[in-house]
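User: Please fill in residues for this 101-position structure.
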């Protein structure tokens, strides 16, 4: 697993596709879940600021709609990575079960 900085400055793990180490897969899943939690925390903070804002309700509604779309777009690659890593983990578990009766 390699780590690199994303455009937002956070570290992003790049999982080595050829790796069959269960611990690496689990670590990559944990990392992706941490990134998803960070996205949610940031979204909640922005929502709190929006709630305290003196903007007109229509502008708040529009801004909230845009924020939800941005959150969704930010989450999508990480959700896909979790699904992919989970499938890899299941395959590794099946292989280890077959290898060690």
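Assistant: Residues filled in for all 101 positions:
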């Amino acid at each position: 697993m390699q780590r690199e900085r994303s455009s937002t400055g956070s570290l992003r793990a790049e999982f080595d596709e050829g790796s069959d180490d269960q611990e690496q897969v689990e670590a990559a899943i944990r990392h992706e879940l941490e990134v998803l939690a960070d996205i949610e925390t940031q979204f909640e903070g922005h929502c709190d600021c929006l709630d305290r804002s003196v903007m007109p309700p229509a502008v708040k509604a529009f801004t909230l709609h845009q924020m939800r779309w941005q959150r969704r777009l930010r989450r999508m690659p990480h959700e896909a990575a979790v699904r992919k890593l989970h499938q890899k983990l299941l395959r590794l578990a099946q292989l280890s079960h077959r290898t060690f009766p």
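For context: The first strand starts at residue 2 and ends at 5.
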